[in-house]
Structure formats: structure tokens, C-alpha cells
Amino acid sequence: MIVEQGDHEVVKIAADDLRRDLATVTGKTAGGDQIWAGTIGKNPAIDRLVVSGKLDAKRLNGAWESFVIATIERPAPGVPRALVIVGSDRRGTAFGIYELSRAIGVSPWHWWADVTPLKLPALHVRPGTHRFGPPSVRYRGIFINDEDWGLTPGRRRSSSRALAAWVPKPTPKCSSCCFG
After folding, report:
1. Fewer beta carbons below 10 Å: N end or C end of the chain?
2. What is the pLDDT averaged over residues 110-139?
């Protein structure tokens, strides 16, 4: 995973998370094609790809939290191929990196709810350019509080009386209801 030192701190944090996620899923810490991640204007190597026409980032200029994930042939001398994650802004780049983690099977809930990803012997990326964003909601986030009883199975078992007060009972029309 290659990240420019001058890029935003959140990009570096997300890149470290992706390194860890790749190792968790594959059991490997190196090998395969290079992965480059960066924000437009903060990563000279990615900016050179845009200027050279190897990476189309026109729709990222001025976009809110948007990103592109693309496979690039010969992005630099001696590099046959790279998977490039480019963000329109720092959050766009971070969301792009986390999208790759999600695509390899790492749930955003892996820490809070013990969702362990499946082990895979190899990972493959569909060639091309894939654009994401902008999001339909300007400010995204998750809010964990003590009213969300469904985060962990243990929490649900220990709180069954509290759940019974407000969880709907399955009806004959809905015998496979998730609350049954």
C-alpha cells in the first residue's frame, strides 16, 4: 500500500487499516500488484496519472467525498500494474480505502460486533474504473448508543426481557420474521 507522506492523516490511518484487513483476509503482508491511495492535489504520483490521461478524475474535481477505484497499467516505470484509489477530498480517499476493505469481506462492524471476515487464498479486482459518490447524505456517520440492542448476539440474549417490551411478535403472515 503506497500513500504519500504529505497526504491527510485520515488517509494514512485508513491505509494502515487496509493493510491490516488485507493481512487478515489473505494471511499475507506483501505480494501482488501495488495499491496506491491518495487525494487529488496531495499525491504527486496520482496527480501525474491524471495529467498523463492514465486516470480519468474529471468528475472528482470539486466533488464531495467522492472517489475512484481503478486498475492502471504501467502507472510508473518498473510497475506493471497498480490498483489506484483516488479521492476528491480526504474523506473521499478514506471512504475509497474502506470500500476496498468492504469489498474483500471486512465488515465495518468487525471490531464492535466481532464480525470475522472469511479467509481467502487470493483476491482479484475487476479491471477498469469504478466511481463512487458523492453520497446522498452530506454528513455521514454512525451513532452507537445504549438503545441499539442488535449489535452483538450476547447483548440480545442478556436483554431479552427488555426486547420483549418493544419487539413485534411474528404473525402467521410473517412466520420468518427476523425478530421471531
Report:
1. C
2. 84
